[in-house]
Amino acid sequence: xxxxxxLPYLLLLLLFVPVIASAAVVRxxxxxxAIVGILDDAANWVYVIGFAVxxxxxxxxxxxxxxxxxxxxxxxTAKKTIITGLIGAAIILLAGIILDTVxxxxxxxxxx
Length: 112
What we know:
The chain is an all-alpha fold and 112 residues long. The chain has a domain at 33-105. It is built from four helices and no strands. It is elongated.
């Protein structure tokens, strides 16, 4: 089916609908603070979704490890899955720290 090819992009687009809708609520002219506020909202959505995915990957790896039944290949696969989830969560956390540092360096704070 051709729809399976585009399904992840469609779901990603649907996740950003609230962010796009919040862009229409921005009052006044388009200044740097308004743009940073919209980007901050988008980043917050990405953080939440990313951490949720990382948590699900870690849980799947934990379940795989518990149900491996002593099979070393399944245990290695489960450990790799857990490590992948932890690395993903760390990358998301570091990206947030970097974005906050750059925003503070530029002296721009998101409008709440």
